[in-house]
Amino acid sequence: MFDALSNKLSGVFDGLRRRGALNETDVMEALREVRLALLDADVALPVVKDFINKVRERAVGIEVLDSVSPGQQVVKIVNDVMIEALGGAGAVALNLNAVAPIPILMVGLQGSGKTTTSGKLGLRLSQRLRKKVLLASLDVQRPAAQLQLQQLAERAGVASLPIVPGETPLQIARRAMDTGRREVFDIVVLDTAGRLSINQELMDEVRDIRAATNPAEVLLVVDAMTGQDAVNTAKAFNDAVGVTGIVLTRMDGDARGGAALSMRAVTGAPIKLTGSGEKLDALEDFHPERVAGRILGMGDVVGLVEKAAETLDQEEAEKLAKRMARGQFDLEDYAAQLRQITKMGSISSIIGMLPGAGKIQQQLEQAGGANIDKTMLGRQAAIIGSMTRKERKTPDIIKASRKKRIAAGSGTSVQEVNKLLKQFDDMSAMMKRMNKLGQKGLMRHGLSALMPKGMMGGGGRPFR
């Protein structure tokens, strides 16, 4: 989502870091570039002005300009101010400090992903917090909206309010809360109707529902792809009903990112959750410091580790590690690795959490790897799937005729089969070197000892 902004800021900061000493003019010139990058990313003008003023105040002091690495200091200051703009360090949890059944009111424009987010929220509250959740659709405007939420509830394994034709949104809300009390639900998620644009009828309806249900949370669901319009929507809903938290959807799209940076300043309400994709488990906590790190090219290693812990099969990973340690790594193990990686999401989303992600992705694109998510892993899995069990166990027997058969069976080329076998050979060779060196050898020789021959430059340094 923040690729364009991240690339521009990385260019500015690389220039600062290369300069040994900085003066006030250098900092002001860099801030001018930062300002243009933020405006281009659709960040609201008042937010940009406030952002630049805060950075300027902290960055032109003697203690920064006279420090050992002034460029690095300026980057740190920008990072700190960005974290503040995004809401401060740490995720803000949903407020569930209320008497059950706790009402959560979902509001927003039509098409923002409100109903899908309600289903995702139901699954999250049920699975992670072990809450008994009731989903209720108050949307009588959009055809089949109530049926859509009912189906999402079934997929999420939570209850949904039975549909009664002819009821008004206010009547449905009251029935939902009454059902929640009678059937001892912990949380009732109320999915309100949206409109194509903000109008008085919409705001009056939401106000009445809020007054009748007294929700612990009023979550505004906003499509991050709408840019500056998302900020205007947030301001209108906040003025009308008082938003307590924001959910940004389509965070995996190619939006400029301005909405995320503007929301807190415009509404005073924190971004609490972010959604990406249609999968019901694709709803995450919003961590300002991690998002700032990704924007500034510092990555989100903590988030990557958490994602791995949630999705990877620990037992399978441990078995694989033991086989590697014994030098028994084969193509079936390689396929298992591919499956584990795929569980974590797209390759681009994983790369996006690594430090220097922008540069890595640029290099992939230059190498023709822009569609790596859609092609590489799927094709490699298809190639391995077209092999016999004996071929997967002993890849050395795969010669010309077998390669032609495997390529035809997987819908790929012989060149792609060769490439996969070469990658597997390189990985196997690395495993053997690791086993041969042992822990002490690795510590003595470093990672260069694992590199294939020809990958090292003079003096034992890798080629660049």
Work out the number of β strands.
Answer: 8
The portion of residues assigned to helices is 55-70%
Q: Profile the largest sheet.
A: 8 strands, mixed
Mean pLDDT: 75
At the fold tier of CATH, the topology name of the largest domain is Rossmann fold
The separation of the N and C termini measures: 29 Å
CATH architecture heading of the largest domain: 3-Layer(aba) Sandwich
Shape: flat
The rounded Rg comes to: 26 Å
Full CATH superfamily name of the largest domain: P-loop containing nucleotide triphosphate hydrolases
Strand content: 5-15%
Can you tell me the number of structural domains?
3
Helix-strand makeup class: alpha/beta
Instruction: Count the DSSP helices.
Output: 21
The parts where pLDDT drops under 50 for at least 5 residues are 299-306, 353-360, 367-374, 439-464
CATH C-level label of the largest domain: Alpha Beta
String of helices and strands: HHHHHEHEHEHEHEHEHEEHHHHHHHHHH
Largest sheet, spatial ordering of strands: 3-2-4-1-5-6-7-8
